[in-house]
Design brief:
Blueprint lengths: L11 H5 L13 E4 L22 H7 L8 E5 L14 E3 L4 E6 L16 E5 L3 E4 L7 E3 L1 E5 L4 E6 L4 E3 L2 E4 L3 E5 L4 E3 L2 E2 L6 E3 L2 E3 L2 E3 L4 E5 L10 E2 L2 E3 L4 E5 L6 E4 L2 E3 L6 E2 L6 E4 L2 E2 L78
Parallel strand pairs: 1-2, 2-4, 3-6, 4-7, 5-8, 6-9, 7-10, 8-11, 9-12, 10-13, 11-14, 12-15, 13-16, 14-17, 15-18, 16-19, 17-20, 18-21, 19-22, 20-23, 21-24, 22-25, 23-26
Length: 357
Amino acid sequence: MIPRHNILAAVAGRRARQSTGTPLPDGTQAVYLKPAAIGGSNINGGTSWADAVATLAYAMTLLNVGAGRVYILAACPGMAYNDTSLTTQFNWTNNTHFYGGFAGTEAYWEQRNVWANLYKAHSNYRWGMSGCTYLTAVIDGLWGRTTSRGYTAYNVGGNGTWRNCFLQGGTTAALYGGITTLAEHCIFSSTTNGAYSKGKYIGCLFYACGQYGMIAETQSDTGGPLAVNCTFADNTLAGIAFVRAGTDGKLRNCIFWGNAGGGVLNPGGHTITYAYCDSQDGVQPGSGNISADPLFVGGGNYRLQAGSPCVNTGSNALWPGVYGTPLAPYTLAAMDVDLDWLPRKVGTIDMGPYERQ
């Protein structure tokens, strides 16, 4: 069951009533996918919701980058369905885009309510990206879990963007990401380690992992932050462990709290810089850092209560906005949203992935 802190549908009614906006791509650009239980069938062509195919494995065979059919749009209303059709690793390539998070009735991008309709794909195989760049390959709106592989999501060469995803499972980690992996607005939990990565993590939540929220390597080879507006909480060993020698681990507007073995461990001898972070390890050197109970709502809900010391105490200048391709091909991305898809900056930006409204 997906944690209740992600079921919030604060904008669902507004989106469902949206009667204008940016139209979804037609069947020459997109393959439409929805479970058989709500009308999908692999005798269809996937050209619309009414003509949707039923399984991810079949939808993948209909992609044709050369002809311009580069999107899979996937419906999984209420996250009630589980696609186990993958029989080998799902290898995503450049210029391909997966967007789950649909109910299967939308006409416009603006109607999509991602967290209420994550596409649920649980199997013994992993999702992979091979030879991609984060500007051109996107997986967005997936609830992924593998039961027996080392990783649920594996970026060969370390590339690609993961966005609005809930990643579980993996005997090593839910996500392996290399140098140019980008994760935005993702949640990592119920796994050995949330991520094993050199990449960038923006507005993500790492909680209740069996070992570490993240095992991190050096970030100096790509520049920029390792983690911005992320929360690492209630992980069994630590929030982050920097495991290899290197430099330039950057943590910005982040919260580290309630991790049993410490907020940040540095056995690899990295140079780690903090700015506007709340650390359970004590106040760290740098601007705007604190060490105080963040006052999470509690009970698996990592939003901030009124009076939290993390409200309005981040740095607007350190929030990067949206990297690479937008949340979807429409202008909502420019709004800068938090993990609930609510406005990211209410006054001064808060620490962590959730903005108190």
